[in-house]
Amino acid sequence: MTVTIFLGALLGPMALGVPIAFALIISGVALMMYLGLYDAQIVAQNVLNGADSFPLMAVPFFMLAGEVMNTGGLSRRIVDLAMALVGHIRGGLGFVAIFAACIMASLSGSAVADAAALGALLLPMMLKSGHDPARAGGLLASASIIGPIIPPSIGFILYGVVGGVSITKLFLAGIFPGLMIAAALCVTWLIVSRKEQHQLPPRQSGAVRMKTFIDSLWALFLPVIIIVGLKFGVFTPTEAGVVAAVYSLFVSMVIYRELPPAKLFQVFVAAAKITSIVMFLVACSAVSAWLITVADVPGDLAALVEPLMDNQTLLLLAIMVLVVVVGTAMDMTPTILIMTPVLMPIIKQAGIDPVYFGVLFIINNSIGLITPPVGTVLNVICGVSKLKMEDLMRGVMPFLIAELIVLFLLVLFPQLVTAPVSWFAR
User: Fold this and answer.
1) Which of 88, 92, 306, 315 is the most exposed place for a label (fewest CB within 10 A)?
2) Exposure string (b/e) for 170-203, b if CB count within 10 Å is 16 or more?
3) Is 88 exposed, middle or buried (0-12, 13-18, 19+ CB in 10 A)?
4) What is the pTM of this model?
5) Is 59 a residue whose pLDDT tops 90?
6) Which residues lie in coiled coils (predicted)?
């Protein structure tokens, strides 16, 4: 009965168009009234405590870094470097998109920011060279979701804070799976684009390549600084967000000089707006998370999946299917905030490593960004390309299947996640 009340109070208001943050509070209040615990002070206290977290300070700084990266020329230089290296080969613009997505993922940690940058910079080039618009848009959307997987990742920060898991370990665990997804996209693009007739950009000379590489060095240093700093304990993930924001501001304003002081206020406001949405969701989710624990909702769910508790692979597959279904109707941030406190006790009871599960969970949520009807990244690409959603879905389908195959492999072979973490921890 508890689960029914919680889901009804959450999904009912959402179906009526109530914002998810308020639906989370409504579901929490409904549970409180059912349990006879209603107190407005408890609601207010949990909302305040939900946002009062030092690790969450990384979110606004990485959001700011992403905005500065797109405005200050870092994104464009990464794309230029990829163009100089692989743009001339057959299907090269697609490989440029994947390569650029991996580098940009290590700068911003946001799929939406990467999708906006890749769509604006690369989609016109791909259409001009003769690529199918739907297929090109589908590749850009699919490549953009590498953003929350390769560190720094806002998704990992939220999961780590809500689930009480080491964010540093999550960051390091996301590197190899993110590269696996990039490799799967490369293979898929090679297959689906081989029959296309398109114009190839001219091959760049060695001198041009070297000049482009040198010009992009300042942008490429940022992921190196973050990963090396985290591995050797120079700074925490929260401090890494500060480093990323300050470094990107310095490079954009002093080195590249593409971010004039007059635009700085606009960039700060844009980052603040996105941050406020995320932080308000986090604060409101604390109410329902507290009630989920008090009402022992995880215990009720654990009883339902008890037959799978002895088989970690089957349990993970069942959870991944559930998250895929939820991801079609809910955005990434609320899914993490709602499902993490529900699933974490079950994961621990089954003896599954929370870091390993976190990687699978965030990959699954990232895939949800390119599944309709919500599909935030799809909406971004549609807005940039003026494509219809049904056309873009046709283009994204082969890449979506490839990413689901990678997720399935990671479920079957946990060492693909755990082994790199062990290596980084040395």
Assistant:
1) 306
2) bbbbbbbbbebbbebbbebbeebbeeeebeebee
3) middle
4) 0.84
5) no
6) none
